Amino acid sequence: MKGVRVAAILFLAALVAASLLAGFLAPVSYAHQFRDLPDAAPSHQHPLGTDDLGRDRLSRLLYGTRVSLLLAPAAALLSSLLAALIGGSAGFVGGWLEAAVMAATDLFLSLPWLFLLITVRALLPLNVSPVTSVAITFALLGCLGWAAAARVICANAHKLCGSDMVLLARATGSSGFRLLWRHIVPNLMPVLSAQFWISIPVFILTEANLGVLGLGVAEPLPSWGSLLRELESFSTFSGQPWHFVPLALLILAVSCFHLALQKQEAWA
Amino acid sequence: MKRLNLISITLAVVLGGAGLHTQAESQLRFCIGAEPKTLNPLLVDDEASDTVRYLTGGVLMRLNRSTQQLEPELATSWKLGRAGNSISFTLRQNVRFSDGTVFSAEDVAYTVERLLDPALHSPTGDSFRAGTGKVVTQITGSNQVTVTFPAPIVGLDKLFDQVAILSSRSPKKEMAVLGPFYVAEDKAGSYLLLRRNPNYWKHDAAGRQLPYIDTVRLDIQQNRDIEMLRLVRGEIHFINSLNAEYYDKLAAQAPGMVFDAGVSLDAEQMWFNQVPGAPLPTYKKAWFSSTTFRRAISASINREDLARIVFHGHARPAVSWVSPANKFWFNAKLQPHPFDQKSALQALARDGFKMQSGVLHDREGHAVEFSIITNAGNKVRERMAAMIQQDLSGIGIRLNVVTLDFPALIERITRSFDYEACLLGLVNNDLDPDSQMNVWLSSAENHVWNPNQKTATTAWEAEIDRLMHAQASALDVNKRKLAIDRVQEIAWQQEPFIYLVNKNSLSAVSTALNNAHPVVLRPQVYWNADQLSLGSGASKGR
């Protein structure tokens, strides 16, 4: 099992490296439209063929991987930090604050957040570059995705506050910020870490869902979500297997994340 | 033993009879995208209900979707009054509704009365509302009726194509119909079954009563992929409207099933926000209200490429707000704006724009960058926007493409005016350009680039206002044509809407369906529903 996990981590590392080196590995610009070659089959010039507008699929896949694979962890980090801040302080302080925060969290969890995301996105300024737009989209995902993690962290913080370890720390004079920083936070790290790793594939899939709805990353920037939109039509199934490469990569990446974070979950 | 034999024989007869019956009954099947909102023909305002109305409703005259000419139906003849506010019909005699009730002039009077009843809020009736005052219906004979409106109505006769005549006496009310079929079964959310009207008045040349088909099953199916699969499997007989992608896929599998009827009435277009109070920087408002700027953008878009790549060749560069498919009203003198970025840059340079390091700047030094909004989830428009983005980068303009969910988009273009440019399509069902008064009058709400103007902001908008009013009050169709031609010329010169492409009308028809002649006007395939037949014997009529 350890070998599988190592292989998964290596695959993810290779994927991240390939996306970071997209500028060198991509045969052409991801945005350039070869208008004489729309929807072309794989060739020497375009190893994965071209899309409907004649854009090189391999280049788009590499840059799309960069967008999805780098910004999803950023969003996961943001949501984990928010979860730590909100859930951790609620669990640490306890009492009415914990009850109020948990009620707010429950309310937040009950919101149809895909629609919330669509609404918030519609209110954003229009004249932003695709890169800014994708950063905003993932920032929104991060801002909206903290609630479930906050519940877990609050419960763990609450449990820690009542533990013998914290009781001993209090008995030795630790209190307030020192107690939180030296004793609670370090013990919450495994949970936070697990929440962070769990969130990454969730955000990748959420962006893909938004992409399928046409509300993902703005043109011409690619992402896994926008690349997956080509699979909307059943007719794609017939004789164009290279269309499935983004889907295969998404499945592999998400599976690898799950394999890689098994140890994290064990810590949690 | 004898008893057993008797049962066997009885069963055989019953089953055999059933088999014969099944074989004899022909059922046409196709999909509609949604449940019809109403079965009352006067309240129709959605496509599914319109389908049912078309197949069941008997009308006084019908616009032949192929020739685009009016043809007599329940009215054998009609005459428009000199003032343009009245119409007299001579009605067909010995016609009965589907339930056997006799059709008479009272039914026409009743239908007009119901149609214009303010309490009913009939969307079809809205087209007939002109001036203030009462609509008077006079029955001048057993088969003569005259309807007089308070004010002249442009294209009055053509409007009756949409008016299904109701029975004034039938206990079945609007379910008693004069069209080729009647609604026999309505399974909510699943299907509608229409059955052949036994009293339908039409006969073919050989004297056989129409329609040929016994039943029509309308399956409610939103998913276009499933609709395609069902067509390929032979479970449905046609798809009325296909997109170019599906057309090509199907053409590869079954070339005999697809049909490209040519350019349709629908257009894809973009426009700039010219609302003076819009929350945009002043310099951008100046760009958008400049004819030179709009024309330069128009000349920098490769429409041929849009038609070839996005629509797989099943579209053609658009010229005007009237499609070339509209045989009478299209101004044939106009040609599509050519793709010419060099000329566009020269024109922009004359207006003070200059290129610096590959980026276009205006005379005040602002880099030319704007956003274009379109509805999310529409792959065709997203592709068009991406192509326009690349085209405009060729003249140093950065275009940001923003896809919004439809309500948010409508909010921006109609209320907040917080947008710069918009890419949308225009679905047009009406041949008469008078139906676009609500777009071209500067005071109109749908004058989207700058709606609800108290007085026309520009001289060319004032001229369009004058011409549109003139055509609306002219009874001579040739005078109307001159006015509409001129409006098309002005729109071509000023480009408040930058027309991009007119899509072709694409459909798919099973080889089992005979007499199908798909056309560009809706309903493309079943416009001659009463003459369609099933079976492999007859010619397909293509």
Any overview of this molecule?
The complex is a heterodimer of chains A (268) and B (542). Chain A has 268 residues and is an all-alpha fold. Chain A has twelve helices and no strands. Chain A has a single domain (2-34, 45-267), classed as Orthogonal Bundle (MetI-like fold), CATH 1.10.3720.10. The longest helix of chain A is centred in the N-terminal third of the chain and has 37 residues, at 57-93. The mean pLDDT of chain A is 85. In chain B, strands 11, 12, 13, 16, 17, 18 and 19 form a seven-stranded mixed sheet that branches. In chain B, helix 9 runs antiparallel to helix 11. The chains are: A mainly alpha (268), B alpha+beta (542). Chains A and B meet through helix 5 of A and helix 6, helix 7, helix 10, strand 16 and helix 12 of B.
Features:
heterodimer, A: mainly alpha, MetI-like fold, 12 helices, 71% helix, B: 542 residues, alpha+beta, D-Maltodextrin-Binding Protein, domain 2, Dipeptide-binding Protein, domain 3, 31% helix, disordered N terminus
